[in-house]
Amino acid sequence: MKKEDKSTIIEQLESTINEYAHFYLADIGGLNATETSDLRRVCYKEDVRLLVVKNTLLKKALENSTVDFSELYDSLKGETSVMLSNTGNAPAKLIKEFSKNSKSKKPLLKAAYVEQSFYIGEGQLETLIHVKSKNDLIAEVIALLQSPAKNVVSALQSGGSTIHGVLQTLAER
Question: Which end of the chain is more exposed for a tag (fewer CB within 10 A), N or C?
């Protein structure tokens, strides 16, 4: 491959990675053609982009990024595919479900960059499945903050109807 072609691919990889908030490095080697097609189809349905890349080109693209991805460099060995998504846990769920039904038990998680954090190794898959997005966490905090106020309002409303009921009963007598 010519040097110009490599630099073009690196630039395309870099821009593609920057388009998405999260990405996973997975090993899909050993999947036959049918399983690979099925994986691509499932990725498309789940709005996950799947790219098969050369490790050296991916490493150069990551080096050119503004984020320090040096923790992921050790994972760039063997066959590597990149799963890109704007939903942090979508690729993790996809990997778990697909590998459960696959004969080769692939894809395998190598590493991931989710919510500005690094997750290295297959053992992090369960953690990644339960990762909540920043917006989900903010919504939970707001709900927790609103809960005491809602309790006070409902207590006051129920207290008012109770007093009204007592007064109405006394007025009828």
Answer: C
